[in-house]
Design a protein that fits this description.
Helix content: 55-70%
Largest sheet: none
Shape: globular
Distance between the termini: 29 Å
Radius of gyration: 14 Å
Number of helices: 3
Structural class: mainly alpha
Number of domains: 1
Order of helices and strands: HHH
Length: about 80
Amino acid sequence: MNGLLTEDRIKDPDALYQALVDAHDGLSAAESLQLNARLILLLANHIGDAGIVAAAAASARASVLDDRARGGDSTA
């Protein structure tokens, strides 16, 4: 990969979102954090490029900080 791909590439984003929500069903807050961490590590391994994963993490963090600066809810 040459760089982080940020254009929409998911054919059915609503179904993907629902699958992610469903994965958390019945889990405690701590278990949900564990699931998120494990999912991130699995996807990072699948991507296989530490630079791309680091760029994605930086982009996600910047988005959260932008929300904070605008007074938005970064937990959604």
